[in-house]
Amino acid sequence: VQLQASGGxxxxxxxxxxxxxxxxGRTFSRYFMGWFRQAPGKEREFVAAIGWTGSNTYYAxxxxxxxxxxxxxARNTVYLQMNSLKPEDTAIYYCxxxxxxxxxxxxNVRAYDYWGQGTQVTVSS
Length: 125
Known about the structure:
Layout: E1 3-6, E2 9-12, E3 17-23, E4 32-38, E5 45-50, E6 57-59, E7 67-72, E8 77-82, E9 91-98, E10 114-115, E11 119-124
Parallel strand pairs: 2-11
Antiparallel strand pairs: 1-3, 3-8, 4-5, 4-9, 5-6, 7-8, 9-10, 9-11
Protein backbone atom coordinates (compact mmCIF):
# COMPACT_ATOMS: atom_id res chain seq x y z
CA VAL A 1 0.00 0.00 0.00
CA GLN A 2 1.19 3.54 -0.74
CA LEU A 3 0.45 6.41 1.62
CA GLN A 4 0.33 10.13 0.88
CA ALA A 5 0.14 12.55 3.80
CA SER A 6 -0.97 16.14 3.42
CA GLY A 7 -2.40 19.07 5.35
CA GLY A 8 0.61 20.28 7.26
CA UNK A 9 1.54 23.92 7.57
CA UNK A 10 2.38 26.82 9.84
CA UNK A 11 -0.09 27.72 12.57
CA UNK A 12 -0.03 29.80 15.73
CA UNK A 13 -0.25 28.18 19.13
CA UNK A 14 -3.85 27.40 19.98
CA UNK A 15 -4.76 26.93 16.34
CA UNK A 16 -5.91 23.86 14.45
CA UNK A 17 -4.87 21.76 11.49
CA UNK A 18 -6.28 18.66 9.87
CA UNK A 19 -3.91 16.16 8.36
CA UNK A 20 -5.00 13.66 5.76
CA UNK A 21 -3.42 10.43 4.63
CA UNK A 22 -4.67 8.89 1.40
CA UNK A 23 -3.91 5.24 0.75
CA UNK A 24 -3.80 3.30 -2.45
CA GLY A 25 -5.13 -0.21 -2.80
CA ARG A 26 -8.45 -1.98 -2.54
CA THR A 27 -7.95 -3.45 0.90
CA PHE A 28 -7.60 -0.22 2.87
CA SER A 29 -10.25 -1.30 5.36
CA ARG A 30 -8.04 -4.22 6.38
CA TYR A 31 -5.19 -1.96 7.44
CA PHE A 32 -4.58 -0.55 10.88
CA MET A 33 -3.51 3.07 10.54
CA GLY A 34 -1.25 5.21 12.67
CA TRP A 35 0.18 8.70 12.90
CA PHE A 36 3.68 9.30 14.16
CA ARG A 37 5.81 12.43 14.38
CA GLN A 38 9.46 13.27 14.47
CA ALA A 39 10.91 16.52 15.71
CA PRO A 40 14.47 17.60 14.84
CA GLY A 41 17.00 15.62 16.83
CA LYS A 42 14.39 13.34 18.33
CA GLU A 43 13.18 9.85 17.64
CA ARG A 44 9.96 9.19 15.82
CA GLU A 45 7.13 8.92 18.31
CA PHE A 46 3.60 7.61 18.34
CA VAL A 47 0.75 10.10 18.07
CA ALA A 48 -2.45 8.19 17.31
CA ALA A 49 -3.79 5.02 15.75
CA ILE A 50 -7.11 3.68 14.57
CA GLY A 51 -8.45 0.21 14.01
CA TRP A 52 -9.93 -1.28 10.88
CA THR A 53 -13.49 -0.11 11.41
CA GLY A 54 -12.67 3.16 13.10
CA SER A 55 -14.31 2.12 16.35
CA ASN A 56 -11.06 1.83 18.27
CA THR A 57 -8.66 4.72 18.58
CA TYR A 58 -5.44 5.13 20.54
CA TYR A 59 -3.62 8.32 21.50
CA ALA A 60 -0.37 9.39 23.04
CA UNK A 61 -0.88 11.05 26.40
CA UNK A 62 0.62 14.26 25.05
CA UNK A 63 -2.16 14.69 22.48
CA UNK A 64 -5.12 13.07 24.20
CA UNK A 65 -8.08 15.44 24.31
CA UNK A 66 -6.59 17.70 21.61
CA UNK A 67 -6.16 15.38 18.62
CA UNK A 68 -8.78 13.16 17.01
CA UNK A 69 -8.07 10.45 14.48
CA UNK A 70 -10.72 9.15 12.12
CA UNK A 71 -10.96 7.17 8.91
CA UNK A 72 -13.17 7.03 5.85
CA UNK A 73 -12.81 3.59 4.31
CA ALA A 74 -14.88 4.60 1.29
CA ARG A 75 -12.29 7.27 0.49
CA ASN A 76 -9.24 5.24 1.59
CA THR A 77 -8.28 8.12 3.85
CA VAL A 78 -7.48 8.73 7.48
CA TYR A 79 -7.50 12.08 9.20
CA LEU A 80 -5.85 13.66 12.19
CA GLN A 81 -7.72 16.66 13.53
CA MET A 82 -5.33 18.65 15.68
CA ASN A 83 -6.73 21.33 17.97
CA SER A 84 -5.16 23.52 20.64
CA LEU A 85 -1.79 23.11 19.00
CA LYS A 86 1.34 23.81 21.00
CA PRO A 87 4.86 24.67 19.88
CA GLU A 88 5.97 21.25 21.10
CA ASP A 89 3.70 19.67 18.47
CA THR A 90 6.08 20.96 15.80
CA ALA A 91 7.38 17.98 13.84
CA ILE A 92 7.13 16.07 10.61
CA TYR A 93 4.01 13.94 10.81
CA TYR A 94 3.97 10.53 9.17
CA CYS A 95 1.10 8.17 8.53
CA UNK A 96 1.71 4.46 8.67
CA UNK A 97 -0.22 1.27 8.11
CA UNK A 98 -0.06 -2.41 8.75
CA UNK A 99 -2.42 -5.28 8.08
CA UNK A 100 -1.37 -7.57 10.89
CA UNK A 101 -0.73 -5.33 13.85
CA UNK A 102 -1.90 -6.33 17.29
CA UNK A 103 -3.37 -3.83 19.71
CA UNK A 104 -0.51 -4.13 22.18
CA UNK A 105 1.86 -2.92 19.44
CA UNK A 106 -0.03 0.05 18.04
CA UNK A 107 2.36 2.53 19.67
CA ASN A 108 5.45 0.77 18.35
CA VAL A 109 7.00 2.40 15.30
CA ARG A 110 8.49 -0.96 14.28
CA ALA A 111 5.06 -2.58 14.09
CA TYR A 112 4.13 -0.70 10.90
CA ASP A 113 5.29 -1.89 7.50
CA TYR A 114 4.15 1.00 5.30
CA TRP A 115 4.94 4.70 5.67
CA GLY A 116 3.99 7.89 3.94
CA GLN A 117 6.45 10.65 3.10
CA GLY A 118 5.53 12.97 5.97
CA THR A 119 4.06 16.44 6.22
CA GLN A 120 5.57 19.31 8.19
CA VAL A 121 3.62 20.88 11.03
CA THR A 122 5.05 24.03 12.58
CA VAL A 123 3.41 25.71 15.56
CA SER A 124 4.65 29.18 16.41
CA SER A 125 4.44 30.61 19.91
